[in-house]
Amino acid sequence: MSDTLNTKHETDRHSRSVSPYRAGFRCVCPNCGEAPLFHNVLEVREICPHCDFDLSAADPGDGAQVFVILILGFVCALLGFILYGTFSMPPWMIAAVLGMVILFGSIWMLRVFKATLVALQFHHDAHEGKLDDKGA
Ligand SMILES: [Zn+2]
């Protein structure tokens, strides 16, 4: 019985053969690097359809949103100054351009950052701490 549990535990462990940054940028499973990580725009799958890796423990929290807000906010503010100062675009056109950049840029960046955080979580075997956890 113990051997069966150990074997099952070893097969469930993350192989660490896929770079978490490559898997995150491509938004694919952090274990096999083949199947898509999301089953809609931003929702992480429960189980990988390619390698049956359990992704239900993935919890990137609000980390991806913070990165996207800070980075995209800086880029859009800079882009707004450039469009107004250098190209003398009218404000309504700047608002339209920045609106599209914010809409599509935030969705793309949220997918990449969320997938990277999930991949890093599995790569480093990060999980919630427990008092009875002996660090094994
Ligand atoms: Zn997989």
What would your notes on this structure say?
With 136 residues, the protein is mostly helical. The chain has one domain (2-123). 54% of the residues lie in helices and 0% in strands. It contains 4 helices and no strands. It has helices at residues 2-12, 20-26, 63-85, 91-123. α3 packs antiparallel against α4. The longest helix is centred in the last third of the chain and has 33 residues, at 91-123. The protein is elongated, with a radius of gyration of 20 Å. The two termini are 20 Å apart. Residues 1-12 have low confidence and may be disordered. The structure holds zinc ion.
Task: Give the number of DSSP strands.
Answer: 0
Beta-strand residue fraction: under 5%
Order of helices and strands: HHHH
Helix fraction bin: 40-55%
What compounds are bound to the protein?
A: zinc ion
Mean pLDDT: 85
Uncertain segments are 1-12
Biggest sheet character: none
**Oligomer type:** single chain
SSE-based structural type: mainly alpha
- Overall geometric form: elongated
- What is the radius of gyration? 20 Å
* Domain unit count: 1
Span between N and C termini?
A: 20 Å
Count, helices: 4
